[in-house]
Fold:
Amino acid sequence: MSDLTEHWTPLSVALLVLSLLGLVGTWTFNVVAVVQMVDFLGDLVSSGPAVSSITVDLLVVAVAGSVFILVEGRRQGMRHPWLYVVLSAITAFAFTFPLFLAMRERKLTARAAGARSARADA
Structure:
């Protein structure tokens, strides 16, 4: 149980809160779209140039962020970083990217604590 509560820094908590806001914010509108039987994908590309611009902008950011998740997750020795990318297709990138950053921050904090402990033991 202590593994779940260890290594939470203010930054990792803030990122986790952003992740939850991303999940609730996006899924609120997703549910509204489903209830209203809206053509979700059609709306993204045919509701005018402003919506299309935002769609392309966020899509490029999501692809770049997905590459970052895969590369940085592997670099930091995180287990199953690809799962964040898969989850983003099911939930929202606004949820999975800050979640990944929070878990990465915990990993970095744990690594730093381990290094301090090792130096103290030497």
Observations:
- The chain has a mean pLDDT of 87.
